[in-house]
Amino acid sequence: MGARPDMTDSLIHFTSGDSPDNAFNCLRTIVAESRLIGGTGMIRGSHRCACFSEAPLPLSSGLVNPDSYSRYSPFGLLFKKQWIFEQGGRPVIYQPDSEHDLLPEELKWRHVRYEPPAVDFTWEREWRVHCPELYFDPSVACLVLPSEDYVDALLADHDERQEAKWYRYSEVFDQEELMRYREDFPWRVIYLGG
Known about the structure:
The chain is α+β, with helices and mostly antiparallel strands and 194 residues long. It contains four helices and eleven strands. The longest helix has 19 residues. The two termini are 25 Å apart.
């Protein structure tokens, strides 16, 4: 089977916020902690999940679309679909609310209400990982930003963490030894514009 432009081997987690600054600050926190915190919003029951979209990049329109309704910000993290699958991630199950209780208890976290034409979120192509927290590192994720303008702030955050670590170790190691512990900015960055 040939490549399909509507299919991707990656999943994206978009950050939320009521403004671009808040959404970017959310991304900064996620990067600093190297974890996604599972949420319960729009998930029936008390299931905590980290949520993703299977939408292909670049996303100059569609999920992140300033001219139309979108609850997604242009900031996020991109993961390989295989890695998310290995963490227990699965595509959601779109179905009427009346069918929710037909699912076994261990699958109810995957339910998403689907009652067209009034309720249809299939365009999100959602995946979920059922978890309170999902830890990751730069080897399995890359940052998604709307433009290069945001990289400087992330580099400054990284340098600040390096300086704090440097200061903690300075009482134990000499200057030359400390240089071996300094880490370069580890994240790969993808821009939504392409």
